[in-house]
């Protein structure tokens, strides 16, 4: 009788227990909307900071270029204004530094994104995009073109790197499938593939390369953004944006994968299909970026951990946060690498390692203090 009466009453006269339940239900949509708004504002602030970082980074270097020059040159090329600018400054900004900054941003965003995906799928905090042997395969493909001349000039260094990366990834999939599948088998297959293609790269360089060829190939293998052009910007941007959209679509699945494949399957997620789709996407993103910029380490390993400290482990926030942080990080590392030993640029992969290792040590120390 009391329960029936309670249900018939207005919300203002329900019992205290019912009030808690109803108000809690009402608060959930408001709480989600508030979180979505905060996430959107953080993403917007990150994009603004990224654009400012790109503009300031372009001014760094031996040429006397101011931020206002960058603004005028970009506005001229976009057809907004027609401000007189020196041809030398226009060429430096539009043809050299701006494409380089955008490719650096795309590499940072893409590699950071791949690091998030790998660490979630493999449930391994030390996983990064190169754990699948993609970097080693790309290196072998590059030296096979650059030193052995396979394929001639029609393929080029970047084309050879892309083909080598896909061959290495295919070998990892084959080995993991033959060994029964599972995340641990993927990691072991990636380790085996990495060692194999690293040995092949060293063999080709040792047996067939002269000193000039060795220097050029080694500079590329350490990561280099020298000579990138607008077509490289378009390629990297398309791949990274498409990969980000795909990964955001699987954000809830990645949340479940973080607790194990059994939990993901119990929530109705097709584990094998989802893992295959995300692994292939990761491989394609990494292969594309490596083919353009060479092997750039530590970005996919360190930045996902830094982003988790800022926004937490939920992938709906973690994926865009890592992409933006990675883009900003790479823009500044590339700028610093460009001016540190001017006029000879430092390979950007060396710069990421020099910055990434101390950051990674600090993150490990912070996690130990938390424990």
Short recap of the structure:
With 371 residues, this protein is mainly alpha-helical.
Topology, element by element:
Elements lengths: L1 H7 L7 H44 L7 H11 L9 H35 L12 H13 L9 H23 L4 H26 L2 H11 L8 H20 L1 H7 L3 H6 L4 H23 L5 H13 L3 H26 L7 H23 L1
Search tags:
single chain; 371 residues; mainly alpha; 15 helices; disordered N terminus
Instruction: Profile the largest sheet.
Output: none
Q: Would you identify the regions where 5 or more consecutive residues have pLDDT less than 50?
A: 1-23
The helix-strand sequence is: HHHHHHHHHHHHHHH
Form type:
globular
Helix content: over 70%
Describe the oligomeric state of these chains in a short phrase: single chain
Q: Into which percentage range does the β-strand content fall?
A: under 5%
For the terminal residues, how far apart are their CA atoms?
Answer: 53 Å
Structural class designation: mainly alpha
What's the gyration radius in Å? 24 Å
Q: Count the helices. How many? A: 15
Give the number of DSSP strands. 0
Mean pLDDT level: 83
Architecture overview:
Helix content is 78%, strand content 0%. It starts with a helix and ends with a helix. The chain has 371 residues and is mainly α. The protein is built from 15 helices and no strands. It has helices at 2-8, 16-59, 67-77, 87-121, 134-146, 156-178, 183-208, 211-221, 230-249, 251-257, 261-266, 271-293, 299-311, 315-340, 348-370. Helix 6 (156-178) crosses helix 7. The model is unreliable at 1-23 (pLDDT under 50).
């Amino acid at each position: 009788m009391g329960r029936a009466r309670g249900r018939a009453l207005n919300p203002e006269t329900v019992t205290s227990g019912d009030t808690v339940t109803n108000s809690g239900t009402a608060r959930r949509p408001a709480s989600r909307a508030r979180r979505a708004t905060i996430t959107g504002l953080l993403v917007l602030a990150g994009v603004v900071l990224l654009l400012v970082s790109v503009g300031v980074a372009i001014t760094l270097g031996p040429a006397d270029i101011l931020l206002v020059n960058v603004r005028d040159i970009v506005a001229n090329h976009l057809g907004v204004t027609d401000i007189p600018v020196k041809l030398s400054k226009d060429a430096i900004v539009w043809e050299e530094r701006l494409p380089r900054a955008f490719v650096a941003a795309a590499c940072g965003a893409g590699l950071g994104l791949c690091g998030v995906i790998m660490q979630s799928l493999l449930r391994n905090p030390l996983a990064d995009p190169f754990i699948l042997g993609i970097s080693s395969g790309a290196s072998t493909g590059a030296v096979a073109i650059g030193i052995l001349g396979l394929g001639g000039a029609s393929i080029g260094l970047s084309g050879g790197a892309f083909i080598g990366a896909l061959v290495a990834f295919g070998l990892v999939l084959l080995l993991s499938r033959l060994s029964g599948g599972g995340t641990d088998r993927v990691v072991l297959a990636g380790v085996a593939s990495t060692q194999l293609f690293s040995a092949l790269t060293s063999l080709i360089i040792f047996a067939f390369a002269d000193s000039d060829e060795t220097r050029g190939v080694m500079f590329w293998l350490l990561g280099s953004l020298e000579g990138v052009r607008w077509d490289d910007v378009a390629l990297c941007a398309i791949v990274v944006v498409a990969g980000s959209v795909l990964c955001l679509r699987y954000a809830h699945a990645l949340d479940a994968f973080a607790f194990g494949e059994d939990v993901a399957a119990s929530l109705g997620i097709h584990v094998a299909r989802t893992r295959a789709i995300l692994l292939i996407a990761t491989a394609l993103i990494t292969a594309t970026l490596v083919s353009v910029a060479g092997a750039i380490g530590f970005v996919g390993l360190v930045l996902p951990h830094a982003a988790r400290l800022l926004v937490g482990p939920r992938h709906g926030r973690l994926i865009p946060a890592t992409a933006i942080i990675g883009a900003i990080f790479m823009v500044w590392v590339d700028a610093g690498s460009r001016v540190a030993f001017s006029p000879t640029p430092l390979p950007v992969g060396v710069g990421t390692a020099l910055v990434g290792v101390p950051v990674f040590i600090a993150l490990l120390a912070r996690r130990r203090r938390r424990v």
